[in-house]
Every structure is written in C-alpha cells, then in structure tokens.
Amino acid sequence: MTKTYFRDKERNYEPIIKATIINPINKKSAEIEMVIDTGFQGGVLIPLKTYAELGLYLLEEPKIMGITATGTRIELRRAKAILEINGYTIDCTVYTTIGVTRSLLGREVLKTLGLCYKPPEKLLVNI
Amino acid sequence: MNWLDQYKKKRTIAIKNFDEEIYRLVKTFASLEGRTVSSIFEEAVKEWLSRRRNYEEILLWNKLEKAYEENMHALMKSIIIKRKEKGYVLVCNGKVIGTYNKYEELIEEARKKCKGPGLIVKIPYEEESIDLGLPW
Fold this sequence. Notes:
Low-confidence stretches of chain B: none
Mean pLDDT of chain B: 87
Strand content of chain A: 35-45%
Helix content of chain B: 40-55%
Number of domains of chain A: 1
Number of helices of chain B: 4
Structural class of chain A: mainly beta
Mean pLDDT of chain A: 88
Number of strands of chain B: 4
Largest sheet of chain B: 3 strands, antiparallel
Number of strands of chain A: 8
Radius of gyration of chain A: 15 Å
CATH architecture of chain A: Beta Barrel
Strand order of the largest sheet of chain A: 2-3-8-4-7-6
Strand content of chain B: 15-25%
Strand order of the largest sheet of chain B: 2-1-3
Oligomer: heterodimer
Helix content of chain A: 10-25%
Low-confidence stretches of chain A: none
Largest sheet of chain A: 6 strands, mixed, barrel
CATH topology of chain A: Cathepsin D, subunit A, domain 1
Distance between the termini of chain A: 33 Å
Order of helices and strands of chain B: HHHEEHEE
C-alpha cells in the first residue's frame, strides 16, 4: 500500500502520508491520511472527532496556544500518542481543536524521522 | 454510562430584557401543556443549537472542557505544581494521583487508576505556544 504520495493537478503536488495513530493508554488506533505541513511546528493535528474516538482525552497534556501565520491564537488540546509509518513507530504529540477538517503532519515528526519535503521533479530554479 | 454523558446538571439563570409578550405566551403554553417554562426554553434552545453548523463538535469540545477544567483546577490547587522539582504529575477525575520521575511509570499508573479523562503535566510547569502555519 502506498504510504506517501503527491496529490497533483489542482493540488500542486500536495504531499500526503498515511500513518497510524495509536493511543498508548487504551491501544485504540486509526489509520489517517495526513498532509505534510512544514509550517506546522507540532507532531500531528487531527479533527476533534478522531481525537475523541481514539480516546486521547484519557491522558492529555495541558492545553497549548497555537499561533497561525495570520497571528490568530487558537487553543489546542494535546496528548502523547504512538505514530506508525510504514512499520516504524515513534512517540509524537497529537493536537486538536474546533474546526479542524484535514489532518496535518508537522515538523516534530519530520525531524524525528529525518524526513524532508522533496519535490518530485528536478528544480526549475537554482536555490 | 459513558463519562461524556455524566456532566448533566441543572442551573438557575436570569435573562435580562427578555420580550415580555413572548414570555407570557411561553407561560400560557406551558400551563396548557402541563409543562414547566424551563422545559420549553430548553426545547427551543436545543433546536436552535442543533441547527448550528458545527453543533456536534462544539458539544464534544464542551464535554471535554468540563473534565479538563476539573483536572486543571485540582492540579493548580495542589502544592506539587508550586515545587521546583522535576518529573510528571498525574491528575484524574479531579484528583492528583501522584508524581513520577519517569513517564513510563506514570503511564502504567494511569492505566490502573484513571477511569475517565486524565491529565499529565511535566513539572516545573510552563505555558507554551506553537506555530500552526496557515489556518487549515
């Protein structure tokens, strides 16, 4: 099964990764398709419904203030979870808040796994 | 019963500047139907809420919020948070369960003792912020 791919056409090579989030307390898990977002500092951002279904509220950390690129401050709930990507497992922080419709995979996970966002074709400019 | 459904409490509220004619109508209907005024207001407000775009999500958030606030309140009034030592504090069901040096020890204890929402706090406790990038 493809675990990572780029969604093209109107999405401009949107980087997608499939990963499984596991709650370490009750072992509940869910496979989720996430957009790799290098603008997101945290681990994984998921919709509130998914967060609740996984039972991540069973052991949360204190809420944290998220700051968007437009300066808006948003209160985030967060909990530690296990993230499984293609057989590799790592500990990561899962975040949620009201209004999240798409799941994001942020820099915390990219850094831990040594992943980087690589465009699929050769670069058109020298940078 | 799911813990999410256990926070049903009644409270007394006062509403300023409410339209008197509407109130009188509600009272008359309540009398005719053998109901209380509050049950009619509850029904009307519930219907209004159910038409909100993200009603289910806000409902879920509020339920989680209630449990979180109880745990946070218990943590803040405990003396543990004021100490300068390092480690983790476990709070469940509005009670501080204990402090632990290792995260793994805390997880084991949480599995045994926490039946509802729990909170794990790294001490010394500091408020943090995080870059979200663009709104999703």
